[in-house]
User: Which sequence fits this backbone?
């Protein structure tokens, strides 16, 4: 009799737990939809975190990490999906690791994930990021090859954002790639390639006159050239 009572208690407890879990799942799914509808990013993060605790799901984790990284919360993104590179990782998972590692100044690690993305979908956006990282790592030949690919395959409607000024702005990706090429060419030979770099920066500014970073770089190189001319 005692065994029967114990068994009934276990079954009842299990049923109550299952019901509670199901109810919580429905609650946080509804909460997620509400927060998403309101555009409440933190609310969406909270809802997805609770959902993943109740019902672990890799796709949901990847999405949560992507939300973190788009908010500039790079460490939280990496804490969500880790930094290991696995061939079975989704595109979102791989992109999150690439962006977040670049965001915390880990160019060598970030490069591995951008190169994996490039293998999966070679395009001018990723080519720019690879060129940027290779420039930071002083692999100028590799960076130039990526820029050349980007310029060959870029489309007129492609844009890239820049955030160095108080007011973020966008320029055409072609202008951004041309700017990057100017930096690479200059760094390959800072004396002999000075004029070529300035010419490339002028081309970038012709494409997008509001390209603040290109203007700053051009002014710096022009001042360098003026100093060289005085010394000659």
Assistant:
């Amino acid at each position: 009799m005692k065994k029967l009572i114990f068994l009934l208690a276990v079954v009842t407890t299990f049923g109550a737990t299952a019901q509670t879990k199901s109810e919580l799942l429905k609650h946080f799914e509804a909460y997620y939809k509400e927060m998403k509808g309101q555009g409440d990013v933190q609310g969406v993060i909270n809802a997805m975190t609770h959902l993943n605790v109740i019902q672990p799901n890799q796709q949901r984790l990847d999405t949560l990490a992507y939300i973190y990284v788009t908010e500039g919360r790079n460490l939280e993104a990496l804490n969500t999906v880790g930094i290991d590179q696995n061939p079975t990782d989704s595109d979102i998972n791989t992109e999150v690791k690439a962006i977040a590692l670049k965001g915390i100044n880990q160019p060598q690690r970030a490069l591995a994930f951008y190169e994996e993305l490039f293998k999966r979908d070679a395009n001018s956006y990723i080519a720019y990021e690879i060129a940027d990282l290779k420039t930071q790592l002083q692999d100028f030949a590799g960076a130039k090859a990526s820029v050349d690919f980007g310029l060959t395959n870029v489309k007129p409607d492609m844009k890239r954002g820049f955030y160095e000024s108080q007011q973020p702005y966008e320029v055409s990706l072609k202008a951004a790639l041309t700017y990057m090429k100017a930096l690479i060419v200059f760094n390959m030979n800072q004396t002999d390639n000075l004029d070529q770099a300035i010419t490339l920066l002028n081309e970038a500014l012709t494409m997008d006159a509001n390209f603040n970073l290109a203007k700053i770089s051009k002014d710096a190189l022009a001042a360098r050239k003026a100093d060289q001319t005085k010394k000659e």
